[in-house]
Design a protein that fits this description.
CATH class of the largest domain: Mainly Beta
CATH topology of the largest domain: Jelly Rolls
Number of strands: 8
Distance between the termini: 61 Å
Length: 130
């Protein structure tokens, strides 16, 4: 009889532990899918022509840049409010004919996100940010 009571006690303890874990795990996800909460989704900006593009002002997280097609010309990503922002910082310069692919940064830019392809740029790339 003592063995049956011990087995039942252990089973109850395991079930309550599992239930507590499930409740805590559900609360930690805040309704999100995967590792990104619903308030933290990335936005995407497709760039296909030359000229600077202010993507977002203020503190911004640069997620990634995907080079779809290159044009043999450079493009620059700035931590700035514009390309004339005296306090701007050049974050990265993609050189001419950079290999196609996704370049992941997951970096916070303090002033904003500005993308500036060279004047003769004719490629395609996608910038993700939040």
């Amino acid at each position: 009889m003592k063995t049956i009571g011990t087995i039942i006690g252990i089973a109850m303890l395991m079930m309550s532990t599992l239930l507590g874990w499930l409740v805590c795990d559900h609360q930690n996800h805040n309704g999100g899918l995967g590792s990104v909460a619903q308030t933290g989704e990335y936005k995407a900006k497709v760039s296909t022509a030359a000229g600077h593009d202010l993507v977002q002002t203020g503190q911004t997280t640069l997620g990634s840049v995907t080079i779809v097609t290159d044009s043999g010309h450079t493009f620059t990503i700035w931590d700035a409010t514009s390309t004339k922002d005296v306090a701007s910082t050049t974050f990265v310069v993609f050189e001419a004919s950079v290999p196609h692919g996704t370049y992941v940064f997951d970096t916070v830019l303090q002033r904003g996100l500005v993308v500036e392809p060279a004047a003769s740029f004719a490629g395609d790339f996608v910038t993700t940010y939040r």
